[in-house]
Amino acid sequence: MDYQNWGPRDLAAPARTAPPEVPVERGMVLEDVQSGWVGAVTRVEKSGGMHVVALEDRRGKSRSFKLGFGFLLDGRPIRLMPPAPRAAAGRPGAGQPGGPGRTASGSVRVTGQRAQVAKASRIWVEGKHDAELVEKVWGDDLRVEGIVVEPLHGIDDLAAAVSEFRPGPERRLGVLVDHLVPDSKESRIAEAVMRSPGAAGNVLIVGHPYVDVWQAIRPSVLGIDRWPVVPRGQDWKTGILAAFGWPHETKEDIGLGWQKLLGAVRTYADLEASLLGRVEEVIDFLTVP
To answer: Which uninterrupted H or E stretch holds 256?
Structure first.
């Protein structure tokens, strides 16, 4: 990810005109001049009678700042104002991830460059839906890097798959696992894989805490307060679609339901930090020497 142009800047030189007033919008990428913190707007709220904006960085960490002066938008100083009326809000802007000059992951868009020939290194994810979500948000970046995402369709045989892959310094492997929490089946599989020959330094296994990658979509993006709770023993995806009142009886129903959910995702700001940080970690592992 290219953030090299987003560092702190010297604003000591006198300005000829006052910075423009810009209403804050969810997903807008801003820099706080004083601290150098860069992140996407995830929420705006009133605290102690003043508006406060939360900025989440590329690794999923969040800090809050008071609205007003002291922010940069696309490298230019602005006065950050309270949200515009609802009818005017939500329009794509130059500072938003996915807007002009930015990819859906928030990185600087590379133009005039062909996608690289695929490298030997790979990103493995658990299933087709995981792969489609990663492709939608990080696909532009991965094509520039020449990194391919492949679905595993489960990790029960991960050790054998890694052994067959034969990881090495020029053939690294990043694996994104669903529900990777302490003392789970997934965590035991990951630990066993990392003890296998050639894994140390060449394989990185990370995961998010969700039952399924569907839950990595922020509920607010779907117009709900929280994801429905599915009773134990019921298929999770079927239960979710049933709770939404959507068709859920067949595999085709599941696929169509996922496409509706995926269609609501526009940029990384629509995903939970627990997934964002892990995907960024894998990309860094595979692309940084």
So the answer is: helix 251-263
